[in-house]
Amino acid sequence: MLKILKYSFYDLMRSRWSYVYFAFYLLLGIVLLFLNNDLSKAVITLMNVIIVLVPLIGTIFGVMYYYNSKEFTELLLAQPLKRSSIFLGQYFGVAISLSMSLILGLGIPFIFYGLFESSAIWDFSLLLITGTFLTFIFTALAFNIALSNENKIKGFGYAILLWLFLAIIYDGIFLMTLILFEDYPLDKLSLIGTMLNPIDLSRTLILLKLDISALLGYTGAVFKQFFGTNFGFVVSIGMLAIWVIMPVLRIVFKSKRKDF
Amino acid sequence: MKIKIVSFLIVLLVGGLHAQTIEVCKDCPISKLNDAIKVAKSFDTIVVKKGTYKEYNILVDKPLTIIGKNYPVIDGEMKGEIITIVSDSVTVDGLFIINVGTSYTEDYAAIRVKRSNDFVIQNLVLEKLFFGIYIEKGRNGKIFHNKIIGDAVEEYNSGNGIQLWYSKNIEIEHNFIEHVRDGIYLEFSDDCIIKNNVSANNVRYGLHFMFSNDDIYQDNIFENNGAGVAVMFSKKIKMYNNIFKENWGTASYGLLLKEINDAEIEGNTFKDNTIGINIEGSNRINYKNNNFISNGWAIKVRGACYTNHFTSNNFLYNSFDISYNSNINDNLFDKNYWSNYTGYDLNKNGIGDIPYRPVKLFSYIVNRTPETIILLRSLFIDIIDFSEKVSPVFTPDNLLDNNPKMKKIVW
């Protein structure tokens, strides 16, 4: 598995898209810092970008990579190799190279700006951690979709739909539910609703760390009570980890049974 | 009338000529402030030398000047009220008063002025207090340069720093008030001037008006209080150049206006408050040249607010600029600068060519269902906000700034 991982990783590292992705984050970081001159403000703006863009890139890149390297995968399958190690190797290769682009692309300008002397370092590292989690989650989901669909167009369609659902439609449904049941106590429901969607969960985690929780009023107090404690933090990181593990297990399961 | 004034002046002059200075110290013939007041005649000066005096219930019943040299300590030993002034023209200067008694039936104060006029209370330091300076039906008084530091934790068992009750023409300047219930509290008090004070870390309000009219407060700083300033049931209050900052908490605000009419709010800065101004049932108020910076809500309009004018204010980086809970609007927004404005200015006259809508759909939704605020900064919210901006359905149709400024307003 490690060998395949290494191969996928180096393959991607040489590819143009990784550089574009890396350069994009580098540019974003530099521009934000130059325009803002304020680290914590820049972190908020970055959050807006990360929770939308990272899942999108993760999904599309994952699907694209799977379909592109299909012939090579089939070649590998002819070799005496474990199927799970082939697919997991590819998956981790993609996910790690994407995360690296993200971390280095954003990290370098911030370090040059003086991140280590700033109090925003924890907010920033939380941002990178959730960004990395989101990359792993959405790449895994993308591999699942690609494994289940032979048809490229269908695969891409589903992948985009998945992103659209989790990034936008889910929030719409969530909002409607909250408004519909406004006569009932909603703090538990809103807590669960947030936990179930990795994008919402990341957003809430970062927002609460940025101390705008007082803005959230009573709901914010409930959230702060939950996410503010170590227990809440562990649970949310655990939830993100589950979002990684479940699709990865399905990759293993699906790849074992798939006819090529 | 003329004779009256002349004879009054003569009495004053004669009194002044005969005015004596009485010294109070540990080794002097008079070692207690209480005794000094008993032997003193009207218009005498009592000088209290450095030392600790364990006294309470000191009754000042004639026009005296009480001056502390090098901050003598008057220790009430938590037994009750410390100084009570019931005479006109009393000056108290330079004392260090501590340990005022706490009571649930009586409002013990470090200094209480009762039905007296023309008093001056200055350069005092008050610590471990229940109520600090309590003016009851006083007129024409001055309260300058005092430092009041309490240790209030809960609202129900703490008192206010400076309290005015049925008083008129009082000047409160350059005081520093910390850790009490309300920093300064005015009830039924008219024509007062509150200037250059700092009121911070108080349990309830930095400054609180109730049924008080025609007062002015300016150049004060209100920081990190339960809520900065509460103005309730009052008319014609002028609020100039104050700073309201870091009043941050789930139910905090910089300025609360409730049932306020005909006020002027000019040149104030609201920074880092959960809610900058919370307005309820307030009419005919002019908001001009104020800065709203990094607040959760810059202005939250709760209802029944008519004919208010918001002109030439800066709204900078607030999560919500204006929140409104109805779709009827009778208030005017004009020539403000909004950092969220995305329009353009083709003719380069400094005024944006398309109007700005300060109320977002999301703030309307949050007003209806507060729990929805957890969707703050979600992409979906940005999309519905955008569509509402293009064609308003829920937010007031005519709530527009027709002349939004392109650059931050400097005055």
Question: Which helices and strands appear, and what pairs or packs with what?
Answer:
The complex is a heterodimer of chains A (260) and B (411).
Chain A: H1 2-14, H2 16-36, H3 39-68, H4 70-77, H5 83-113, H6 121-148, H7 152-180, H8 187-196, H9 198-209, H10 217-227, H11 230-257
Helix pairs in contact in A: 1-5, 2-3, 2-5, 3-5, 3-6, 3-7, 3-9, 5-6, 5-11, 6-7, 6-9, 6-11, 8-9, 9-11
Chain B: H1 2-18, E1 21-24, H2 33-39, E2 45-48, E3 52-54, E4 58-60, E5 65-68, E6 73-75, E7 83-85, E8 91-93, E9 96-98, E10 109-114, E11 120-122, E12 125-127, E13 131-136, E14 142-144, E15 147-149, E16 162-165, E17 171-173, E18 176-178, E19 184-187, E20 193-195, E21 198-200, E22 205-210, E23 216-218, E24 221-223, E25 227-235, E26 238-240, E27 243-245, E28 255-261, E29 264-266, E30 269-271, E31 275-280, E32 286-288, E33 291-293, E34 297-303, E35 309-311, E36 314-316, E37 320-324, E38 332-334, E39 337-338, H3 361-368, H4 379-390
Plain-language structure description:
- The complex is a heterodimer of chains A (260) and B (411).
- Chain A is mainly alpha-helical and 260 residues long.
- Chain A has one domain (2-257).
- Chain A contains eleven helices and no strands.
- In chain A, helix 1 (2-14) crosses helix 5, helix 2 (16-36) runs parallel beside helix 5 and helix 3 runs parallel beside helix 6.
- Chain A starts with a helix and ends with a helix.
- The mean pLDDT of chain A is 85.
- With 411 residues, chain B is mainly β.
- In chain B, 11% of the residues lie in helices and 36% in strands.
- In chain B, strand 1 (21-24), helix 2 and strand 2 (45-48) form a beta-alpha-beta unit.
- The radius of gyration of chain B is 26 Å and the shape is elongated.
- The two termini of chain B are 49 Å apart.
- Residues 11-16 of chain B have low confidence and may be disordered.
- The A-B interface holds A 41, 44, 47-48, 51-52, 167-169, 171-172, 174-175, 178-179, 182, 186-187, 190, 194, 200, 203-204, 207, 212, 214-221, 223 and B 248-252, 274, 296-297, 317, 319, 365, 368-381, 383.
